[in-house]
Amino acid sequence: MRCVRGGVLGCIVGVFVASVAAAPHNWAAALQRAKTERKFVLAYFADPDCFTCQRYRAETLDNPQLAALLRRFVVVSLPMPQSAGQLRKLVPGWQEVLPVVVFTDAKGTPQDYIVGHLNATTFAAALRAFLRGQRSDAVERRLQRRPHDLATLYEAAVWFLERGDGARGLPLAEKVLAKDPDNRKGYHAPMLVHRGLFYTMHRARIAHRALDDFRAVVTRFPQAPVADEARFYLAVTHLALGQDAEARRWLVAVLRVSKSPTLRAQAQKLLRFLDAEPPADLRRGDGP
User: Where is the signal peptide (predicted)?
Assistant: First the structure.
């Protein structure tokens, strides 16, 4: 089993601002180039006026550290809502959540897609998985063969949640939680963390639900391997929601009990941020 590490910090503190070669904005030209170069197409649908989308784009599509990986695709950037018709053709079940990354072959046939904001680590892992031939349809076939196997359910839930597919991922997560209610098999706690990260990274309007999942890990399973991460993500989510006092409390808890040098360093960085920046209401422009 594995759990996403790091990256959520990118929604609070700095992201990369350097840019790789500009992606084309023409769908037909991207397909023609994909045929010529024998590559897959990576179509990025986002609102250019969405500040959060642009911050995450800087960490993913425009991240120079991922340039070599991205060169294995023909990347096309398609603005929303102008390209909504094209997106609906590729992802018929699309429900207004942005951004969306769609992988297609050179004929424009969809191969897989990811919904919502991704940090650099998760984005790079998704690209590598795609290039290795790991696709959502293969995950579904494994589920059909072993629909009641806990490990298979867990891996499928993580796969879909990391890609922002709540329609498939959330019901699977519920099955995992029900099959291992006391975390005796080691699946319940990390499943809560993954579901919390889904709410935080892919569903900003209901990010508060992540607090319940992270808090459940910390209070019910404080000795679980993922408890340290849950404390940190709890602090980050409070900070993202403008709840500075709670964020500070959990960051101090991370410093006090975490054995991870990385988490301790990130917690210290966020505490310095809280010390240096104005209160949340003034950061949002709500103050007097």
Answer: 1-22
Tens digit of pLDDT for each residue in 217-248? 999 999 999 999 999 999 999 998 889 999 99
**pLDDT tens-digit map of 41-89:** 999 999 988 877 888 899 899 999 999 999 999 999 999 989 999 999 9
Burial class (CB in 10 A: 0-12, 13-18, 19+), 22: exposed
Per-position DSSP letters for 25-92, written without gaps between them = --HHHHHHHHHHHT-EEEEEEE-TT-HHHHHHHHHTTT-GGGHHHHTTEEEEEEETTTTHHHHHHH-T
What are the structural domains of the chain? 8-134 (3.40.30.10)
Taking the model in full, what pTM does it have? 0.77
Question: pLDDT confidence of 5, banded at 50, 70, 90?
Answer: very low
Q: Which of 185, 189, 176, 152 is nearest to 3 (CA)?
A: 189
DSSP string, 200-261: HHH-GGGTHHHHHHHHHHHHH-TTSTTHHHHHHHHHHHHHHTT-HHHHHHHHHHHHHH---H
Structure confidence at residue 251 (pLDDT): 96
Closest among 127, 26, 28 to 68, alpha carbons compared: 127
Query: What gap in Å lies between CA 59 and CA 66, rounded to an integer?
Result: 9
